[in-house]
Amino acid sequence: MLDIGQHPKIIGIDLTGSEQKPSGFCLLENAHAITYRIKQDEEILNLVQSHKPSVISLDSPLSLPFGRISPFDDDPGRKIYGINRSCERQLLARGIRSYPPLIPSMQKLTQRGIKLAGILRGLGYTVIESYPGGAQDILGIPRKSKGLDQLKSGLRMLGISGEFINAKVSHDEIDAVTCALVGLFYLNGQFEALGNEQEGYLIIPKLV
Predict the structure, then answer these.
(1) The pTM is what?
(2) How many other β-carbons are positioned within 10 Å of the β-carbon of residue 128?
(3) Which CATH number among 1.10.10.10, 3.30.70.270, 3.40.50.800, 3.30.420.10 corresponds to the domain 10-205?
(4) pLDDT per residue over 149-163, tens digit each?
(5) What is the tens place of the pLDDT at every residue in 121-130?
(6) Burial tier of 20 (Cβ tally within 10 Å: 0-12, 13-18, 19+)
(7) How far apart are CA 179 and CA 13, in angstroms?
(8) Domain locations along the chain
């Protein structure tokens, strides 16, 4: 299973499609999670610069389907190239469903995620794309739809600690913890990268 001993700082972010809606933010260090709800990209950037993590794990599509030039429906390549990427198709082949990154409700999130990842990578940070629901399925812990208490218990059983276990926190904060956990698998080399070179990769835990 996962080695959760001494590890560098990891940040997990459950991003929303608008700076007007709170995103979940988690700082994970030595398997101890601290969570926040934050809105503005500037807040995210300030926290990242303050903590200087080894990896940032973002729950947001961080690329477009190959051939697309815009996340929106007026993209001239929409009918040709579609709304899904290779990583979504690979997940589905494993029985794990995810939202297509370019359905109307996901378009602004995809746009924001791509922009934010670009800024963070430009600052020299390693940024990976994660999907908490898929990671939870792979790790055998309940998704938030089954109840936050069950999801918290699953994270605790995996060795993650923090005030979020007993505190009243939002579902986006718990998903941010899961994102950070995926970052820990990534740093340990226990991961699979779904996707391709043209579209980039979605990182999922690999159980050994």
Answers:
(1) 0.94
(2) 22
(3) 3.30.420.10
(4) 999 999 999 999 999
(5) 999 999 999 9
(6) exposed
(7) 7
(8) 10-205
